[in-house]
Amino acid sequence: MNKMIIDTTHLKGRINRDLYGHFSEHLGRCIYEGLWVGTDSAIPNIRGFRKDVLEALQKIKVPTLRWPGGCFADEYHWMDGIGPKEKRKKMINTNWGGVIETNEFGTHEFLDLCELLECDAYICGNVGSGTVREMSEWVEYMTFAGESPMANLRRANGRDKPWKVPYFGVGNENWGGGGNMRPEFYADLYRQYQTFVRKYDGNSIYKIAGGAPGDDKNWTEVLMANAAKYMDGLSLHYYTMPGDWTYKGLAVDFPVSEWALVMKRSLYMETLINEHGTIMDKYDPAKRVGLILDEWGTWYEVEKGTNPGFLYQQNTIRDALVAGIHLNIFNNHCDRVRMANIAQVANVLQAPILTRGAEMILTPTYHVFDMYSVHQNAELVESRIECAGYGTEKEAALAAEIPCISGSVSTKDGYLNVSLCNLDHANAHEIECEFFGRTATASATTVIGRVLTGDAIDSRNTFEKPSTIIPKPFTDFSWTDGKLKVKLPARSVVTLLIKN
What are the residues facing 418 on neighbouring strands? Predict the structure, then answer.
């Protein structure tokens, strides 16, 4: 019998709502067509933002939005994106498809979007091709209330009151597209640049240093050794794919072996957090510096017939499991992980939202974020899962290395929130939840369940059939001797709200 031990007497800290953050880059159709259509568009919009997308993002309580990149950030010069739109400088987006970037969407538009979503802005500054002065003046432009050249320029562009910018990243992937730097060189640059990211007028900025790609532990070691006291957070990027950078695997019509690889590599996120966290503990035992997973998600070959530089891919029930696994891991490591941002919010990689002209669909990944929103700012509850691997050697040679169930537990507003993922592509699994510290009897306990699953391993929502995969009420559980037995369908995500 698979078992989950839940100790409600042991709370392990707050699950920062920012673990449920998102990422928006000037890449493909993420910004233009995904978020922004302009005020003259026939598509219903609010101040130029798609009304349907706004409402969908408000529903899942997006807490934080990262912008303008990504790789784009280290070629972005913010003054190109302010002032009258017809006078803004056009540029070539050399990173993503070689298309013309009009800069119609700039600082004012992004921060207006954050206000509409009631979410926190996470700005990523340009270290790769920018200057200290450029970064310093951007922060002044956005956040200074007094009399200064940049504050006056903001006012001239129609915004008197400064914005709140809670998060600022000093560069992006500076080990690669952000400058091909050595960690020692970037550590010194970070120390220099962050000095001039000023905290004006009570705007407290959480400064995030550019961290490692995947398992590059030396980068983390050098950054923590040389710059830890100057940072509030250190980023880490990790993408899940069944192949490699030469062949990334398929988003649909994939074999079972690719399902198994994606499950295994999603679970590897926990290894990365533990390994990088151990290095961080050496220099920061109090865990003051947060680990920031500001790029994560699946990365497959693009959909046929689309621009390969736009990174457009479909999103299936497999991606829903990837999202659930990651969010469970982030929840369970909330002592060190302070923010995470899935890549990306619309039309790019593991997008919660896909658009086509005036049409919009919500992907399985979106629905997992909706189901898991109960964990935002909840208290993590001690839990442990004991389960076997799944499948047969014929179905998946890696199955013995893959636990069949992933989960996390929190408490908020009088409920225990239990989230469970059945990673098995083919078989249902029963799990027994045993509670310590609860005094309520089963007969007096209210349980509200939701389930997300699909009929096939690549089940997905399409513009023709947008509701193939949606959360449904879940009641396949029973109480026996104070223990809750839950039967999880194959390839499913389940969330149970149990009244305390």
Answer: 409, 496
* Residue 65, C-beta contacts closer than 8 angstroms, at least 6 positions apart: 21, 22, 23, 24, 110, 113, 114, 117, 119, 120, 121, 122, 341, 345
Through-space distance between the first and last CA atoms of the chain, rounded to whole angstroms: 25
Active site residue 295: yes
Please list, residue by residue across 300-333, b when 16 or more beta carbons sit within 10 angstroms of its beta carbon and e when fewer do: bbbeeeeeebbbbbbbbbbbbbbbbbbbbbbbbb
- Given 173, 258, 386, 393, the catalytic residue: 173
Q: What is the pLDDT of residues 344-378, one digit of tens each?
A: 999 999 999 999 999 999 999 999 999 999 999 99
In the block, which residue shows the tokens 């926190």?
120
Residue type, 163: W
* Contact residues for 394 (Cβ-Cβ < 8 A; gap 6+): none
pLDDT, mean over the chain = 95
User: In Å, what is the CA distance from 262 to each residue of 197, 304, 442?
Assistant: 39, 21, 37
pLDDT single digits (tens) 227-267: 999 999 999 999 999 999 999 999 999 999 899 999 999 99
Cβ–Cβ < 8 Å for 143, 121: no
- Catalytic annotation on 173? yes
Question: Is 60 exceeded by the pLDDT of residue 397?
Answer: no
Residue 31: closest CA among 62, 69, 74: 69
Q: Kindly tell me if the per-residue pLDDT of 156 is higher than 90.
A: yes
Under 8 Å between Cβ of 489 and 281: no
List all residues 6 or more positions away from 239 whose beta carbon is below 8 Å from its beta carbon.
295, 296, 297, 298, 299, 343, 349
Structure-block tokens of residue 477 = 């559980």
Three-state secondary structure along 211-250? EEECCCHHHHHHHHHHHHHHCCEEEEEEEECCCCCCCCCC
- pLDDT tier, 440 (very low <50, low <70, confident <90, very high otherwise): very low
Rounded to two decimals, the pTM is 0.96
Instruction: Identify which of 337, 332, 340 has the alpha carbon closest to the alpha carbon of residue 410.
Output: 332
What number of helices (H) and strands (E) belong to the chain? 9, 24
How many CA within 13 A on the CB side of residue 236? 31
Name the pLDDT band for 481 (thresholds 50, 70, 90). confident
CB 158 within 8 A of CB 187: no
Arithmetic mean of pLDDT, 94-122:
96
- Out of 25, 33, 258, 295, the active site residue is 295
